[in-house]
Fold this protein.
Amino acid sequence: MKIIKAYKYRLDVTPEQHERIMQLCGTCRFVWNKALSICNEKWKSGEKIPSSYTMHKWLPTWKKEEETSFLAQGNAVALQQKLNDLGAAWGKHFDDLAKLKAGKMKEVKFEKPCFKQRNKDSHNSIRIMQFSKYCRIENRRVKLPSKLGWVRFRKSQEICGEIKNCTITRKSGHWFISFQTEQERLDPVHPSEKIVGLDMGVKKFVTLSTGEKYKPLNSYRKHEKKLASEQRKLSRKVKFSENWKKQKRRINRIHSKIANCRSDYLHRASYEISKNHAIIVIEDLKVSNMSKSAKGNAENQGKNVKAKSGLNKSILDQGWYEFRRQLEYKQAWRGGEVIAVNPAYTSRTCPEESCRYESKENRPNQETFRCVKCGYENNADIVGALNVLSIWELGHSLSACGEGSLESSEKQEPRRNRKRVAA
């Protein structure tokens, strides 16, 4: 099987190289904005949005015009790739519109492409395709085209596979380079035979059906006061002045630290769980719906708005969706599986197979679970993880045995020789 993997490193650029990369990013940003303005005009007039192949034909004309002759100083491959990105963005938007009309989606996920601003670090990026043709790596240096020459980077790990392209981005005052590689691997077989259920939460980040618990990092909460203090300082400065820009950079560094701490924690947790379990059963949580505002509108005022706002902040601070994404691709690399099940009533259903009684009275408080029918007691989060695992096992048994009764499914053990991990 072929897998695509990226390796990201920090670049150590000279002042001259910094200015040159900024110039290349500026030409890419200009081409995106200019092509987007033409596309928007055609959209308003009812014409068809041109494809990226058609947009490529605009570049030679722009380079010959006096007002846009500076585009000749940019990287031709990077400019074409930026137009490819614009074409892909329009394609995703139109696909969502088609699904919306067909009733397959409730709202558009990918909005219409927007203009890129110069003062945003996320819009300072270039992608160089055909890496083997235009670039090469020696030790801790990479040779880049467009008069950039040899650039040092902090090689923290070896690069495996064939490098297809590289992307240079700027974040929090630093330049980073990401190498996208293609690797050929044999179909992996997970070394473990264990199955585990996961219960996500706020007070406990994740609880396993084994009883193992991961404490939440709460990276935003830890830096919240400092961030608020720095933002108040920013509000007292003249907008776009030099002092305002310095303060803005300080705030960006705090945001970057919060994101880096969260990402590191999620990678460590997902690596450990993925390494030790072949099948991971998780809750199919709709994070966007769970973290919606409770303010309401002028006619229908919301209730407990302050409490819901704090809960939303805590939910988003955990990074549940990113954790699930990491589990899915890491399990795919190892030959395992990630299965999402409906989380309804998992926190108040008795996990005993002979009982399975569901009632809100089973959970008298946040931590305790006590079945009012059979008297089973355990931690509420562990009970949630056990129920998540039981939902999958029941569905797997029924699908393996056909559309029969529950009695027929209990007579067989279609578990693919996997070991259930339970408390």
Remarks:
- The chain is about 45% helix and 20% strand.
- Confidence is low (pLDDT under 50) at residues 403-418.
